[in-house]
Design goal:
Elements lengths: L10 H18 L1 H6 L2 E4 L4 E6 L5 E3 L4 E2 L1 H23 L5 H6 L5 E9 L7 E11 L3 E10 L4 E10 L2
Antiparallel strand pairs: 1-2, 2-6, 3-4, 5-8, 6-7, 7-8
Length: 161
């Protein structure tokens, strides 16, 4: 997705945008800290990871991941994928201009399919953007454990402007 109105941002400016996106996601959205989400990759596909902790257990007898943690993680991953895609769409803009575009962003629809028990020590969520319109963006998300077992999938729509 290349924006046709200007030159592609420099490697230095892209690194600045990537750092700003990571900072926003890992530190400034404090709920993501509660979940323990860390950015693993921005490209070619957004990937986030977190470690299992006692605070995330939903079934105390089996130590399974709480369904709300799964849902919140997939929602956050879909939103983050759209942030990255918006940055790619507007390659002629500075980091500050791109970051300003997220001010009104929010989830408007979310569907989660819980496929297997949330068992594992480390989980990785990934997302792909299926549509990036002017006002609404759509994503598909996946959550796997450290063995690559698919735990859940999701689909979401977000208001992006």
């Amino acid at each position: 997705m290349t924006h046709a109105h200007g030159p592609r941002r420099s490697a230095e400016e892209q690194a600045r945008l990537d750092a700003a996106l990571t900072d926003l996601f890992e530190r400034r959205i404090t709920f993501n800290q509660v979940l323990g989400l860390k950015v693993v990759a921005l490209a070619p596909q957004v990937q986030l990871a977190f470690e299992m902790r006692p605070e995330l257990v939903g079934h105390y007898l089996y130590g399974r991941l709480h369904g709300g943690v799964i849902s919140a993680t997939l929602d956050a991953t879909g939103g983050f994928a759209l942030m990255v895609a918006i940055g790619e769409k507007h390659v002629d803009e500075t980091t500050e201009q791109v970051m300003h575009r997220f001010a009104r962003m929010g989830t408007i629809d979310l569907r989660i399919d819980y496929l297997r028990q949330g068992l594992g020590q480390r989980f990785v969520a990934s997302a792909e953007v299926t549509r990036l319109g002017g006002r609404v963006g759509s994503t598909l998300m996946r959550l796997v454990n450290e063995q690559g077992t698919l735990i859940a999938t999701g689909a979401a729509a977000y208001m992006i402007s």
